[in-house]
Amino acid sequence: xxxxxxxxxxxxxxxxxxxxxxxxxxxxxxxxxxxxxxxxxxxxxxxxxxxxxxxxxxxxxxxxxxxxxxxxxxxxxxxxxxxxxxxxxxxxxxxxxxxxxxxxxxxxxxxxxxxxxxxxxxxxxxxxxxxxxxxxxxxxxxxxxxxxxxxxxxxxxxxxxxxxxxxxxxxxxxxxxxxxxxxxxxxxxxxxxxxxxxxxxxxxxxxxxxxxxxxxxxxxxxxxxxxxxxxxxxxxxxxxxxxxxxxxxxxxxxxxxxxxxxxxxxxxxx
Length: 270
Hints:
By secondary structure, the chain is of the alpha/beta class.
């Protein structure tokens, strides 16, 4: 039986990070795209970033792409929401970090639930799989034609995490999904045919421990397929992209998740 794992207030929480993105903007496959290139300009190891609901202009994801570029990957962040990402002003307006979340009153939680109910359902309907997946797959097919491109990986966060998993069904050479949301268990994982890495927090309200165990059981049966699932202690949904840098523990988790992705792609995009 399939279990659809949905959205929650966690998707609207997090921190905007300091720094200035160093990449450039191009139009690729009719989508505005942020491009971060490695120092040598090589496209041999390419990564497509599949964004969360805050989209391709969110500074955090651009800074992260810059870091991957410094590690030797040619990185693209396409605007797969086509100018219709969730407004950044909502970031952290619904749910604060874990420590503060635990102190919320019932009234606060009720307000948060109401805000999510107004914001997310119409957006998710507009950007449902039947609309978004063809855009993503067309983009990946397009960048595969870029001269010098050898292997292509997909990294996804939250909303985009599910599409990284779906890309691992065969359209990319390797994928990395960080705290994916809206996943269909077991369906999304049974079709995985390429190396897949996952990073989840043990306090993620979108992926409870039971669901994570189900995922582990499914991918464990793929004995000849490289895979891993790492669980990060005391981390909420969104930690790999939107952690609070003022928290040493949260910053370390985010850095470790970045290292996880770099190591995975260095191994399977080589």
